[in-house]
Amino acid sequence: MSTRIGVPEFVDTGWVFSPATHAEATEIIGRYPQSRSALLPLLHLVQSVEGFVSRPGIAFCARVLDLTEAEVAAVATFYTMYKRSPCGQHLVSVCTNALCAALGGDAIYATVSAHLGVGHEETAGEPGTPGSITLEHAECLAACDMAPVLQVNYEYYDNQTPDAALDLVLALQAGVKPPPTRGAPLTDFRSVEREIAGVYDDLAARVEGPSAAPSTLRGVTLAEHTDQRAPAMPDTVTFPDLPPKK
């Protein structure tokens, strides 16, 4: 049987989502004035259950949001954060965009890839089991001032080197969770997916970590020391007339 090129495929796992997941989905949907607006967090919710977005996950989202499966699949295939194959316990994302690549990101990716024996969006170990790792290239992670960077389950590890990244991966495989440079304590991929969906089992513990590095705040710190401030916003603003449409 031939395969149509460009048509996304989702694995049919036969999974049946639990009443607890249905209840969480209902709570998430209730946060939005229009139910379809909850699609992005619901895709993260189903991904937190199976470790990826499966065909039953697509069907679940379509059913609870009164959408077609085609509409759900169109969104799930647009964003790279939605995975179509099972992820490991940890997702390691190495930035290989221009600046990080120039400062060593490519070497970091090559080192980690060689150690794990996998390439982009491939998993070393049985997906979901302790110590299993999915590796991926990442586009800009918005931390150029700390380049080169990588993320584990979307938590930042800044100013990396090939050796430091390898030590980090070895620790993950051994069941250790080294603290990120900033942000929340490291957990695992499925737990983070619940949080991205908006389901927090312990919110207080997740917001205690530092959120910004000193280099990121250097500009505002300098402005404070030199008493520089942006002009105050005026109370009213007069906008020029727009030319008529042709």
UniProtKB/TrEMBL annotation:
Chain sites annotated for binding [2Fe-2S] cluster: C95, C100, C140, C144
Superkingdom, taxonomy of origin: Bacteria
Molecular-function annotations in GO: 2 iron, 2 sulfur cluster binding; metal ion binding; NADH dehydrogenase activity
Enzyme Commission designation: 1.6.5.11
Cofactor(s) the protein requires to work: [2Fe-2S] cluster
InterPro entries: NuoE-like (IPR002023), NuoE_dom (IPR042128), NuoE_N (IPR041921), Thioredoxin-like_sf (IPR036249)
Chain segments carrying region Disordered: 224-246
Cofactor note: Binds 1 [2Fe-2S] cluster.
Alphabetized UniProt keyword annotations: 2Fe-2S, Iron, Iron-sulfur, Metal-binding, Oxidoreductase
Family statement drawn from the similarity comment of this UniProt entry: Belongs to the complex I 24 kDa subunit family.
Name of the featured protein: NADH-quinone oxidoreductase subunit NuoE
Phylogenetic classification of the source organism: Bacteria, Bacillati, Actinomycetota, Actinomycetes, Nakamurellales
Gene name of this polypeptide: nuoE
